[in-house]
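[Q] Does anyone have a clean C-alpha cell version of this?
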Amino acid sequence: MPRLGYERSDFVMGMSLAEIVLLLVFAMLAVKAARPESIDPVADCQVALDECEEQLEEVRMEVQDLRTKNEGLEQKIEWILKMCGIDVPSDATPEEIRGAAEAKKRGFKKCYSVQNELVRVRVHLGSEQLTIVELDDELAAHLRAERQEWTVGSVLEDERQIDQFLQTLRGYYEPRECRYDYRGEYATAEDYLRIREYYERFLYPAGIRKIQ
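[A] Here you go.
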C-alpha cells in the first residue's frame, strides 16, 4: 500500500511539471508572436518620404490646374470688359471692376460710395420741393465755397433756389465725372414729366413713385 501511494504522488507531481513546461512553451510562443519583426529605420523613413513625394506631386498638379483655369478666367473677363467698353487697369480688383461696370451702366459713377442718394424731389400739382437727405463733406465744402449753406434736412421750395442748387451741383460734377441720385414723388402725369425732364439733367433716379 505504501508503495502505491508513493507512485500516485510521483504521477501527480509529474503531471504538474508537464503543465508548467507547457505553460512556459505557450508563454514563449505568445511573446514571440507579439514582438514585431526586426525594424529597419532607414527603410521605414524612405517609405514615408516616398509617400510624401507622391502627395506633393498631386498637390503640384492641382495647383497647375488651378493656374490654368485662373488664366482662362482672366482672359474671359478681359474680353468681356473690352466688349462692353469698360476700361479698367489690368491689376484692377473685383470691387474696382464692379464699380466700373456700374458706372458704365449708369453713364457716370456714383459721387459718394457710402450713400449716393442726395435729395428727395416732390412735385405735387406743379408745386416743387427738394429736400437734402444726405451730404458728404466734400460736397458740403463745395456748397459753402459757392455761398450755399445747405445742410441735411434743408428744404428748397423756391424755384430759383432749386435751380441755383442744381447748377452748383453741375459745377461739382465736372472735374469728378460722377452723379448723385434722387428719389422722386409725383401726383400727375405733368408732375412726372417735370421730374424726369428737368431733375434728371442733374441727378440719376434711385426710385420714383406716384402719390395722392
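[Q] Thanks! Anything notable?
[A] DSSP finds six helices and seven strands in the chain.
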